């Protein structure tokens, strides 16, 4: 009698179909660790009277019984699945395990969306390479690397995929489902870092005049964004209570992957008039200072409104093919050109730069920001 190995140390015999007139059934012997005798897993078809009907049911029932034992880890003796559906274990399918791990991650919505996109493409490629059958315990570096290579990604995107997948595999290692993160041994690919575009002074003057004349409600946002070095979502998340004009400071929430950090930033002297003007219309502490129509209000505005406004009202109308984040790059370039530290103004949290500050060092950074003099347009 031929035996098939199942998960959790179980085995089963081949299925036997008995098709006598009086007794028609499908069965196999189910063996499990800790049990002296095998369990007979049997399903009868006697209630179906005609042979034609029995033949039709026999095929689907055999398929169902095979799937329950071989793929879903069903124990016919206890009539239970050996692990609950949705619970990860070392025998879980690779796709199921990674998706469930991502579901449990506390990422920011934007970051989670990026990881979901990369994971989806990775799993699709894994299936195309006929590797979709792999259990999480069987996944190795070669499987991940071959799958990533098959996607023919740019070096930069390859590295991004690897980082996102590695964060998921790290959790599986922590839970003991796998021993080694298969992404650890995959080398990071070299890529050329292109020099970021910046606006010329003439372009800045043209944009400033266009906004002031045609879209004055956007003017304060334009100047504050340009002179802050912040990201768009960071400004849109600012409430009146986050801003201290007396100290020339504001507090943003940095959202980077899994990291949420509250960090103080300085209002540089050239930007102060725009902050003061914007704050005059903020009535309550919980008001976002840039709500809809770029005016203070109780509702947070999504960053896509800003991007679309810039594309339609600025780029297309003026004829300048540069996105709004070129303002940030331009400001940081001018900060560096004036011999200030662009890294400190931008507030990057990289281990090689400004990573972890002591309290005294953080205060010195903030005071240094307040001394920056960059001309507003």
TrEMBL record:
Native source species: Chryseobacterium carnipullorum
One record GO biological process: DNA integration
Short name of one Pfam family: Phage_integrase
Highest classification ranks of the organism: Bacteria, Pseudomonadati, Bacteroidota, Flavobacteriia, Flavobacteriales
SUPFAM superfamilies: DNA breaking-rejoining enzymes
Protein name: Tyr recombinase domain-containing protein
DNA-binding in keyword set: yes
Family the entry assigns: Belongs to the 'phage' integrase family.
An MF annotation (GO) of this entry: DNA binding
Domain spans labelled Tyr recombinase: 194-371
Signal sequence region: none
Keywords, comma-separated and alphabetical: DNA recombination, DNA-binding
InterPro entries, per database record: DNA_brk_join_enz, Integrase-like_cat_sf, Integrase_catalytic, Integrase_recombinase_N, Tyrosine_recombinase_XerCD
């Amino acid at each position: 009698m031929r035996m098939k190995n199942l998960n959790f140390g179980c085995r089963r015999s081949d299925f036997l179909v008995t098709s006598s007139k009086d007794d028609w059934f499908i069965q196999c012997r189910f063996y499990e660790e800790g049990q002296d005798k095998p369990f007979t897993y049997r399903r009868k078809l006697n209630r179906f009277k005609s042979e034609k009907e029995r033949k039709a049911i026999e095929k689907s029932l055999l398929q169902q019984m095979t799937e329950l034992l071989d793929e879903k880890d069903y124990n016919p003796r206890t009539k239970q699945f050996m692990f609950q559906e949705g619970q990860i274990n070392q025998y879980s399918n690779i796709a199921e395990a990674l998706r469930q791990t991502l579901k449990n991650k506390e990422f920011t919505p934007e970051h989670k969306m990026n990881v979901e996109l990369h994971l989806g493409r990775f799993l699709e490629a894994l299936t195309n390479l006929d590797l979709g059958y792999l259990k999480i315990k069987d996944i190795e570096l070669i499987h991940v690397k071959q799958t990533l290579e098959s996607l023919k990604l740019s070096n930069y995107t390859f590295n991004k995929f690897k980082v996102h997948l590695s964060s998921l595999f790290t959790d599986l290692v922590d839970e003991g489902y796998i021993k080694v993160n298969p992404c650890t041994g995959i080398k990071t690919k070299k890529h050329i870092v292109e020099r970021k575009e910046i606006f010329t002074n003439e372009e800045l003057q043209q944009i400033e005049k266009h906004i002031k004349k045609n879209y004055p409600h956007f003017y304060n946002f334009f100047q504050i964004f340009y002179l802050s070095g912040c990201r768009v979502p960071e400004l849109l998340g600012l409430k009146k209570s986050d801003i201290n004009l007396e100290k020339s400071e504001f507090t943003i929430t940095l959202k980077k992957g899994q990291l949420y950090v509250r960090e103080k930033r300085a209002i540089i002297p050239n930007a102060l008039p725009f902050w003061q003007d914007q704050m005059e219309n903020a009535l309550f502490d919980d008001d976002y200072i840039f709500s809809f129509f770029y005016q203070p209000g109780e509702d947070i505005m999504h960053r896509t409104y800003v991007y679309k406004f810039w594309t339609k009202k600025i780029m297309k109308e003026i004829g300048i093919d540069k996105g709004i984040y070129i303002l940030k790059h331009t400001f940081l370039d001018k900060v560096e050109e004036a011999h200030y530290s662009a890294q400190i103004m931008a507030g990057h949290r990289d281990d090689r730069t400004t990573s972890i500050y002591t309290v005294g060092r953080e205060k010195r950074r903030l005071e240094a920001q307040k001394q920056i003099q960059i001309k507003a347009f």
